[in-house]
Amino acid sequence: MSYVYQWLDGPWGDGDMGSWADRSPLHEAASQGRLLALRTLLAQGYHANIVTIDHISPLHEACLSGHVACVRALLSAGANVNAATIDGVTPLFNCCASGSVGCLELLLQNGAHTYTTHTHFPSALHEACKRGNSQCVEVLLSHGANPDEESHQGTPLYIACLHQRTECSKILLHRGARVNVGRGADSPLHAAVRGGSADLVSVLLEFGADVNVRDEYNQRAVELAPRGAQTQKLLQSFEVTPRSLCQLCRLQIRTLIGRSRLKLLPMLPLPPLLTDYLDHT
Question: Has this prediction a pTM greater than 0.85?
Fold first, then answer.
């Protein structure tokens, strides 16, 4: 496994620190943000797409460390924007791990793919949600990333709830992420309740979370909440107080509009009050 996963504490690491010995001077310069050295090495004939045995490129290194100028120089020298390590890690993934919006936007402007070619490969959107890098989530979605992207880890929303990333969850839900789809039978609401976040539970309920969904152990979210906890009180209160007609209409209208067209809401000839109502603002 590549050392990138060990650095990021990713779910694919197996204890092997990867191959450091075969990293080139170009890798070192990119990792440390030494732009002058990087340009000199490129001018001396080092190839922008030189890789280690694990297929880690200098662009991977620059993105992981958030060095925008080095990323720009490597791209100008022909670096492969969609290069993948043997574990499927892309430079885009590394941007989301480090939270570097500048590097992320540069890659997307140069043709970086927002999707993965295999459900077992790491997804940039999932990583941004896991890390709580909400700006990266915004940028990825604005460039066409699928908020319901399938992964063995679950949906991006599920990952955001699992790691208690309320802001990322809000962004995904505003963009039309399916509120009840998580990982298998486990819903985002189940994950939020296990984490004990009342704020996150409240957000999910506002966007239509089904309190009657059961996990693989046939338990509803309220049955997972600790007795007397705020999450339990919230769910118990919700069960005896049905959603208002106002909430139900908003959820139904948003469903009819469809996820791909939600971004067009501000363009509709509607009063701002109605647009804000439909947009949950």
Answer: yes
